[in-house]
Amino acid sequence: MVLQRGRRPTVMTAVLHGVSAFIRTYFLKRGFLDGSHGFMLAVSNGEGTYYRYIKAMLLAQRQRQENRD
Q: How confident is the model at residue 62, as a pLDDT?
């Protein structure tokens, strides 16, 4: 999905999107009201988003290397 938009993912975008997913889940969707379960869900959402962007970054790097060869 990230690569289909034509954007080049970086480590910084991965970190920022991961943090924003955590904030969105924990604060804006009021995950803090669920205690530790809400916190763990917010961490899980942030981590999943971070890994999604890192995976897209690595895939884009691999595609660029294959195009060079």
A: 93
